[in-house]
Design brief:
Helices cover 0% and strands 45% of the residues. The protein is mainly beta. Bound molecules: FE2/S2 (inorganic) cluster.
Length: 121
């Protein structure tokens, strides 16, 4: 396990994606609304799109006709290429189907050391 100081805590915002590099590998950081910082591999597990160009959103669902509920605000990363969505909590796809079921984001452990974000690889 190696620890890499990658940026300042203030550089990681809720609803935003911050790309850093560890060696030549891109890693994307985002802060959840709860304050936790998540680090995921910078390439989409589907076909390798650069996730720094994606967006952070939530989920929509419905239990009754004519009613749409919005949830998980700030916890979903949508790939900019084909639109697959993954949870920033666990890296799993949020709308599993036959194509996305086996895909998941590569998750990295994150530590906060003073005002530095440290990614463990
Ligand atoms: S490359 Fe990300 S959904 Fe296809």
């Amino acid at each position: 396990m190696a620890r890499h100081s990658v940026c300042k805590v203030a550089d990681v915002a809720v609803g935003a994606l911050t790309e850093v590099k560890v060696g030549r590998s891109p890693i994307v950081l985002s802060r959840l609304p709860s304050g936790e910082i998540r680090a995921v591999g910078g390439r989409c597990p589907h076909q390798g799109a650069a996730l720094r160009f994606g967006c952070v959103s939530g989920t929509t669902g419905s239990d009754t006709p004519n009613e749409l509920t919005y949830g998980c605000e700030g916890e979903i990363l949508r790939c900019p290429w084909h639109g697959f969505e993954f949870s920033l909590r666990d890296g799993l796809p949020t709308t599993p189907d036959s194509e996305s079921l086996t895909l998941r984001l590569r998750m990295y452990e994150v530590e906060v050391d003073g005002d530095e974000v440290v990614v463990v690889t």
